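quick one, 329 residues, struct below
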Amino acid sequence: MMKWLKDNIVLVGSVLVALVLLALSILFLVSKQAENQKLNEQWTQLTEQLEALVNQDIYPSQDNVKVARDSTRTLRKFVDDAEKLFPVAPVQKFDNQKFKIHLEKTIAELTKEAADANVMVPKGYGFAFGDLRPKPNLVPYSLDALAVQLAEVRSICHVLFTAKIQALESVQRLAISIDDPPGSADYLTDRAVATNAFATFTPYRVIFKSFSAEFGNVLNAIAATPEFFIVRTVSIEPTERESEMGGGMQQGGPGVPGGPPITPPVPPLPTQPGLPQGVRPPAVRPPAVRPQPTPTPASVKPVAVLQEKVFRVTMLVEIVKSKSAPRTK
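---
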């Protein structure tokens, strides 16, 4: 037997390898049968879902078409009504010369409006366009955008002047061209234009001084503007200037605190039957009276009844505009 194994070692080895491979094939087949059964179950489930979708009544019909048309009409009406809340001002075309004239005219009108409303503004203030005034020529591509910014700054200042604030310190806008120098106090450096599928949001920052009532007028005026304003942030800090309102008590006539005392009249001597004329009757002891404390005379110095401080307001506002193409004048 051993001699036969030695003579047929190759044959025996081949048989053993074949048996091992057969065993591995059987194990692989068993594992794949389980996986195949799982895939068959998933296939059956998907087939049933497809048949259910095919058998549903979702094919185009007159009712479905009518519902789709009504929904489209409702959506378009909603978009049209929403765009009316975010009006886009007509864009006026300018060349360099016309824009410079329009800029100087607008600044002069804002300065006069501030003076008429008794609102203090910095001397020679350019309302966020001071760096552009001395430049003879501006890049042509920026003129339309600058004209839009100028109109929006004018709307913001009109709101502040209508509310009769105490003073306008500054207005800041976004730099939009190479003519806007970096580092100027006229420009916003921490904000940018935001946009979504329907509208754009252009930020501006204004710093002004006012009393609390005037600040309330500013918010009311913003709500009444035709432009759609959003007040993003408000920062309030006190200033050194104070205003005292009211008056004090003044010195008056008799009986008024601080005035001369009242002297009671002297009554005539009483008469009593049986006594000669002019003879005083016997003295009658008056009842004891508790002495009253002497009132302290009031000071004649005016007393302040209301004292309010002027505060500085830093307000970030955004103007919301529809993304519809603006008209051209």
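Residues 25-53 form one domain.
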